[in-house]
């Protein structure tokens, strides 16, 4: 009997998002995949990952850990086939590029990177090395998102001419981006890149098209000290831990209440000084919390998109206007703090409705599958696509580096537009050698 050779995975970046991947490899996919090394700038977080896996899976034996400066040594010593990248966004390109140069394929968390220069470097390295990069857009795999793609693909409302897309982050989930490293735009590209990359990818996926022209406006209007002062707030603090002023603040995050937040961040901050529980009404926030974007696509469809991060309700509403009718989708999501709860809570849906209104006919509601797992049932399907043997996918939900580029380029162009006040042509931001 010939045993199948397991694919070897090294994981760089062991923060809050990492366990989604490494627990799947060690658990459900242990017969086809092998986790061979962790890499991070913080030893405490790597130790936490090893201990977490040992506690959850009796068969697990701790794997070697490497500091960020020893990334090349890890690749040479452990010989992974694939590197999984879940570091902070501004460093994604460094590990993606170096992994490919050393002969590895890459799975990267979204966004692929944060600006057009780093994106160009990744595109060029794929062309030069022939290695593969996959971007983990789990929202594509949710039953409701896939159903919308199916309806549009099958011409139920004809050619889509216009999309209206409103995404609301509430005062628990939305606020969380203003407590941590995301609040510095140099790290995350702002929410138009870090968060909206999911949404812009969905529109690309639904329309089977790519962005052409982008115009955006955005500002920091709710979070930050100046905005709080305008509303009459006069009690401020730098971080929640150990601060009496945070006790009465509903926006404060208590790291000691969550074993995972404590283990990953509070216990680890002595190494690098990173504070996970900064005040959302503090100084130094450089990202926007209110954004509006207009996009023209190559197929001439238009998008009107908005995102704000201080809503009393979490979810999104999308409408598609076509030559034969209209689709309306309304999705309510359970509020979530990264690493502060169960993985299945992330993106969990509490309301799902798709309504089709044909021209000259009665409207009808579309029936949706109920699937277990985070992001409305998407996460298990994505993991099977990454680490298992998935069946043929008629919707082509697996996302490449080009899909990753096209999703972030809408947000990157939006950032340029906000700075300049001008519409931005996507073709002026990036060159695609393989499309020449």
UniProtKB/TrEMBL annotation:
SUPFAM superfamilies: Glyceraldehyde-3-phosphate dehydrogenase-like, C-terminal domain, NAD(P)-binding Rossmann-fold domains. Residues 8-137 form the Gfo/Idh/MocA-like oxidoreductase N-terminal domain. It comes from Paenibacillus urinalis. The lineage of its organism: Bacteria, Bacillati, Bacillota, Bacilli, Bacillales. Pfam families: GFO_IDH_MocA, GFO_IDH_MocA_C. Coiled coil: none annotated. This is Gfo/Idh/MocA family oxidoreductase. Belongs to the Gfo/Idh/MocA family. InterPro entries: Gfo/Idh/MocA-like_OxRdtase_C, Gfo/Idh/MocA-like_OxRdtase_N, Gfo/Idh/MocA_Oxidoreductases, NAD(P)-bd_dom_sf. It comes from the Bacteria. Residues 149-425 form the Gfo/Idh/MocA-like oxidoreductase C-terminal domain.
């Amino acid at each position: 009997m010939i045993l199948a050779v397991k694919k070897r995975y090294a994981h760089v970046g062991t923060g809050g998002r990492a366990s989604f991947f490494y627990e799947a490899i060690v658990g459900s996919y242990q017969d086809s995949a092998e986790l061979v090394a962790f890499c991070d700038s913080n030893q405490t977080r790597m130790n936490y990952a090893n201990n977490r896996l040992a506690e959850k899976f009796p068969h697990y034996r701790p794997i070697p850990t490497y500091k960020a400066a020893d990334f090349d040594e890890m690749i040479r010593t452990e010989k992974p086939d694939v590197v999984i990248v879940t570091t902070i966004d501004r460093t994604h390109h460094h590990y993606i590029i170096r992994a490919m140069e050393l002969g590895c394929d890459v799975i990267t968390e979204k966004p692929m990177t944060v600006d057009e220069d780093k994106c160009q470097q990744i595109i060029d390295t794929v062309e030069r090395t022939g290695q593969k990069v996959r971007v983990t857009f789990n929202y594509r795999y949710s039953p409701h998102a896939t159903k919308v793609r199916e309806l549009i693909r099958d011409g139920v409302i004809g050619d889509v001419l216009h999309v209206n897309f409103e995404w609301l982050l509430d005062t628990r989930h939305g606020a969380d981006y203003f407590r941590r490293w995301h609040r510095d735009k140099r790290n995350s590209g702002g929410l138009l890149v870090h968060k909206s990359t999911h949404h812009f990818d969905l529109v690309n996926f639904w329309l089977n098209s790519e962005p052409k022209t982008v115009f955006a406006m955005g500002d920091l209007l709710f979070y930050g000290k100046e905005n709080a002062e305008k509303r009459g707030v006069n009690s401020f603090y730098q971080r929640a831990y150990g601060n009496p002023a945070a006790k009465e603040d509903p926006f404060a995050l208590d790291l000691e209440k969550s074993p995972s937040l404590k283990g990953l961040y509070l216990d680890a901050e002595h190494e690098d000084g990173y504070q996970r529980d900064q005040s959302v009404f503090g100084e130094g926030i450089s990202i926007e919390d209110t954004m509006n974007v207009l996009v023209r696509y190559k197929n001439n469809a238009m998008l009107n998109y908005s995102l704000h991060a201080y809503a009393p309700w979490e979810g999104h509403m999308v409408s598609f206007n076509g030559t034969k009718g209209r689709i309306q989708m309304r999705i309510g999501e359970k509020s979530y703090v990264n690493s502060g709860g169960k993985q299945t809570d992330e993106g969990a849906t509490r309301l799902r409705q798709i309504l089709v209104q044909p021209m000259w006919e009665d409207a009808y509601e579309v029936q949706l599958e109920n699937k277990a797992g985070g992001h409305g049932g998407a996460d298990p399907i994505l993991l099977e696509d990454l680490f298992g043997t998935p069946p043929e996918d008629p919707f082509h939900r697996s996302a490449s580096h080009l899909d990753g580029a096209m999703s972030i380029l809408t947000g990157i162009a939006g950032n340029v537009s906000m700075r300049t006040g001008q519409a931005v042509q996507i073709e002026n931001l990036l060159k695609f050698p393989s499309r020449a």
